[in-house]
Amino acid sequence: MTALFLRDLKLSVRAGGGALIGILFFLTVVAVIPFGVGPDLKLLSRIGPAIVWIGALLASLLGLDRLFQAERDDGSLDLLVMQETPLVLTVLVKCAAHWVATGLPLVIASPLLGLFMNMNGTAIGVTALTLLVGSPAITFIGAVGAAVAVALPRGGLLVSILVLPLAIPVLIFGVGATYAAVEGPQPFLPPFLILIALTLFFAVIGPAAAALALRNTTD
């Protein structure tokens, strides 16, 4: 499992620019917002957490279609399905490697992009914390879409269509927890705990559903 994690981590970094492409896309999404809403610093500060979360969500979709594509192309996907190690565990390790390579850099970059939106220190810190907790759920959801679309010639668009509706609850509670901590009067802990629960839920359901889809694909 360690060898698989390191292998997928290297592939995620190399394929399509890896983390750099995601960060650049994240930067592009957040940077164009001030041009659209104008130079109102108070408005930018108020909508900043939501924009950062939306930018991170869209950037997280990049590369999800390649989660199992390398194994599909070289024929090793059949070996992963037939090996003694449970396929669910293999998918979980691949998801972890993909998140470390592409999701974690977005979390690290979010404080800098929060400054572009004129967010205060509390908003920047809480946004980064909620992204750290909630962004893995997007990867687990994306694994299901990637497994379904792995055999399709244009699976990238299908992955985005499948992932976005399922990721909406993660976005809602991530943004809600941030606004609760910054503006109130709602407490921060309830939406934050729900966000953690969503990540744990998809950490169980996502790999299991992806493993089932991969087995059906190889049959």
Automatic annotation (TrEMBL):
Subcellular location: Cell inner membrane
GO biological process: cytochrome c biosynthetic process; cytochrome complex assembly
Keyword Cell membrane applies: yes
GO cellular component, one term: plasma membrane
InterPro entries reported for this sequence: Cyt_c_biogenesis_CcmB, Cyt_c_CcmB_bac
Membrane topology value: Multi-pass membrane protein
Keyword terms: Cell inner membrane, Cell membrane, Cytochrome c-type biogenesis, Membrane, Transmembrane, Transmembrane helix, Transport
GO molecular function: heme transmembrane transporter activity
Pfam families linked: CcmB
Domain of life: Bacteria
Signal sequence annotation: none
Transmembrane regions: 12-37, 43-64, 85-108, 128-150, 157-182, 188-214
Family classification: Belongs to the CcmB/CycW/HelB family.
Its biological purpose: Required for the export of heme to the periplasm for the biogenesis of c-type cytochromes.
Protein name, UniProt field: Heme exporter protein B
Organism: Rhizobium lusitanum
Gene name as annotated: ccmB
